[in-house]
Design a protein that fits this description.
242 residues, alpha/beta, Purple Acid Phosphatase, chain A, domain 2, 6-stranded mixed sheet, 12 strands, 31% helix, globular
Length: 242
């Protein structure tokens, strides 16, 4: 079993809850779809938690911003927090993030942070409007399964099928004969109105992805954000899952 996680955003409390649940559910490996850091106050702890697992991972735009490698689409608050995050990272965390690729092709999937149509892969949103173009770009010559983050909303898009956006908890069969792309939702900054952390479990034998929601102490993360002097708006959005 592989736990697929995205958009942790330095939310240690949420990540700890997700990893505990993943381990209890039988996950032995992680696939991390970027944005380990950004927005919240515990980037070092999040990298340390991930480093304790066997994993594959790609880099996200907030990770790049914190490394000073550019996130030209970041808004004022995101840019300020990326700059703050850069002051918190030690050489070990910087090395972990710097080593992450922008696109990863595994035997069972292709992983990016942003989308499949943008040449840099770390930006651009997959939405019901852009899904078909992303499915076509995923692997034009053969059906493939792709995983992405960035939108913070769990979703499944299958070529020439009805889109399933803002997925409910549950298990979804991944087709073998048509390309499909899926977002596991956000661990640390959900934006679908559900404050619980979201991730997915991939079963390589059944070829299914299960969306799992995990409650955690949101106020503990809020307290850490405010204690670090980060913007109040970040705490408000976390409480409202937007």
């Amino acid at each position: 079993m592989i736990a697929v996680i995205a958009d942790i955003h330095a939310n240690r409390t949420a990540l700890d809850a997700v990893l505990t649940t993943a381990r209890q559910r039988g996950a032995t490996r992680l696939l991390v779809l970027g944005d380990v850091v950004g927005y919240h106050a515990e980037p070092v702890a999040c990298v340390e938690l991930l480093a304790g697992w066997p994993l594959d991972a790609v880099i996200g735009n907030h990770d790049l911003g914190a490394l000073g490698l550019g996130d030209r689409f970041a808004n004022r608050i995101a840019s300020a927090i990326q700059a703050w995050t850069a002051t918190q990272l030690t050489a070990a965390e910087r090395a972990f993030l710097t080593a992450l690729p922008r696109r990863l092709e595994l035997e069972w999937c292709i992983a990016v942070h942003g989308c499949f149509t943008h040449p840099e892969s770390v930006i651009g949103y997959v939405t019901p409007v852009t899904a078909e173009a992303n499915l076509a770009a995923l692997a034009p010559a053969q059906p493939r399964f792709g995983l992405f983050g960035h939108s913070h909303v769990p979703a499944l898009h299958v070529r020439h099928e009805r889109d399933r956006f803002a997925l409910a908890e549950g298990t979804y069969k991944i087709p073998r004969t048509r390309s499909a792309i899926m977002n596991p939702g956000s661990v640390g900054q959900p934006r679908d109105g559900d404050v619980r952390a979201s991730f997915a479990l991939f079963d390589p034998e059944a070829w299914t992805m299960e969306i799992v929601r995990v409650p955690y102490d949101v106020e503990a993360t809020v307290r850490a954000v405010l204690a670090a002097g980060l913007p109040d708006e970040v705490a408000t959005r976390l409480r409202e899952a937007r």
